[in-house]
Amino acid sequence: MVPRLVKALGPLVVLSIAAVTSPAGAVALGGATPSPVVHEDYLIVSHDEPSGRQHVLFAARLAPASPRVLVGLPTPSTPTVEPMPKLDLAALVFALVEPHEQRTRGRLSARPAPWVMDRSTLSSFVVAPAASEQPFDAAWTKSYVDRGFSFAVLDVVTPPGNVLEIMTPAAHVSFDTPRVIVARREPPRAEAPPDDPPEGAALPMVVESLRAAPKDAAPSIEAIERALRMRSGPMLRCYERFLEHRPEATKVTIEAAIRPKGDTASLRSPGERDGDESSRELARCVVAILRAQKFPRADEGWKFSAELAFTPPRTPARRTHLVLVGPSRHVWRDPPASARLLHDFEAAPEDVARVMTPELRRVMALPEGRRLWVSHWLDRDVRRALAEDVVFEREALPADGEPGTLSVTTPKPDLLPAAESPRETRRSRLVSKRARAALAAATAFALAVALALWLARDEHRAR
User: Fold this and answer.
1) Cα 330–Cα 97–Cα 284 angle in degrees, nearest 5
2) What are the boundaries of the region Disordered (predicted)?
3) Is residue 277 part of a domain?
4) pLDDT tens readout for residues 170-225
5) Is 186:387 a contact under the CB 8 Å cutoff?
6) Which of 77-86, 308-317, 361-370 has the lowest mean pLDDT?
């Protein structure tokens, strides 16, 4: 059977994914089960300048789970592929960036959730440009074959089970290239876009257990739910950030008191104090959004409580972490609006040695005893059918004392005193005024006591 495209995704180089029954014949997933798409992927890239060889560590989270997928990574020359199943790339990037965050901002970022790497197995093979059969979209494949690209193909098998997504084991892909290149263009998606869900599709946020009181004054349950769902867009962005650290369904409980005109007298969530930092951050984000929401008017004040149930969306938001590390600085000129440079700094040798074993540094061709630079990009582009490949420009490392170097530290905002609110300012002034009055009274009392003792001593001498 001629292989047939099921779904395209992308990374390094563009990911194309197809569900398969065997390496010889791809079979599309049919029925109500959608094909998997990339939720989040990591690419750690280094370039060995003396040999002109690029090294890439790659892993991805795909949703929904599928028994078997092929992941294709186009490379400008024939690659070698080596599975590295024990390597957690999300944890590696966090550990690489954490010392810089502490040094320059005085704070720790939220640690990402551990990747469950023992759930899937990974094998690999290489497809040459001249191969008679290609397992991916014909037009997309031809666009790379015409330029002499090969394809590093990762074959990911996941045993059946009640899982939301697949976390692929990491792979090391290496190929010859004079410059750092990352292909982003992907085949067009075969399914409906996420903003046009099929009938009956589950929504990523549902209002549950909604209760309002007093019953004779509070608006209807339907009216309150509509008001909550009006802010679902911003709240789902809060949930997207939560998914970066804990890829799972979750709930946020809210409790609110509403004034007659519909503005909030108070709105809180127990989750602001409970659970891990990711859960607390989600609850705080949701509460901040809903405090500004207008609710239905009533003749008197009323209260309500509800649970907001969040589930991973049918087509997950896309996040590609692209991390370049090496003895040179590689610059992405004119990046798209979807890509943002999160970190750009010189890594301390001891930090790199702590994060990467000697064997891993050898695999990535990182030289010993030389300065190393880290650039961490986050690309959130979801539709990449027209995305342009990136050819990074090499620059020498900045001189000591320039931004990003180890000899420069920026102010640590988390260690500076926070700006006071007007209420806190008034309270501070009141406390300060009372303190001055108390000090003046204590001073006057002490002077009076001293005067009395002095007069008593003179009277005693006179006697």
Assistant:
1) 125
2) 260-279, 400-428
3) yes
4) 999 999 999 999 988 887 765 444 444 443 335 678 999 999 999 888 999 999 99
5) yes
6) 308-317
Q: Containing domain of residue 179, as a range?
A: 7-194+316-413
How many residues in total does the chain contain?
A: 463
Pick the closest to residue 229 from 346, 310, 333 (CA basis): 310
Mean local confidence (pLDDT), 375-404? 89
Choose the final residue of a domain: 390, 413, 436: 413
- Name the nearest CA neighbour of 376 among 83, 97, 13: 97
Q: Which one, of 198, 166, 138, lies nearest residue 69 by Cα?
A: 166
* Average of per-residue pLDDT across 430-456: 66
Task: Give the C-alpha separation, 305 to 254, whole Å.
Answer: 6
As for how many domains the chain has, the answer is: 2
Are residue 263 and residue 241 in the same domain, yes or no? yes
Distance CA(252)–CA(245), nearest Å, equals 16
* Residue 88 placed within a domain: yes
Q: Is residue 450 part of a domain?
A: no
Q: Say yes or no: 221 and 252 in one domain.
A: yes
What DSSP state is assigned to residue 128?
-
Q: What is the β-pairing status of strands 319-326 and 37-48? A: parallel
Q: What are phi and psi of 81, to 5 degrees?
A: -130, 130
Segment 212-222, tens digit of pLDDT: 999 888 999 99
Mean pLDDT (whole number) for 251-275: 93
Whether residue 80 sits in one domain with residue 17: yes
Using alpha carbons, select from 122, 176, 179 the residue that is nearest to residue 149.
176
Domain boundary residue, one of 378, 395, 413: 413
Residue 334 — left, alpha, or beta (φ > 0 → left; ψ -120 to 50 → alpha)?
left
Question: Degrees (nearest 5) of the Cα angle 71, 89, 277?
Answer: 120
Give pTM, 2 decimals. Answer: 0.64
Task: Please check whether residues 296 and 342 belong to one and the same domain.
Answer: no
153 and 91 together in one domain: yes
Does 430 fall in a domain?
no
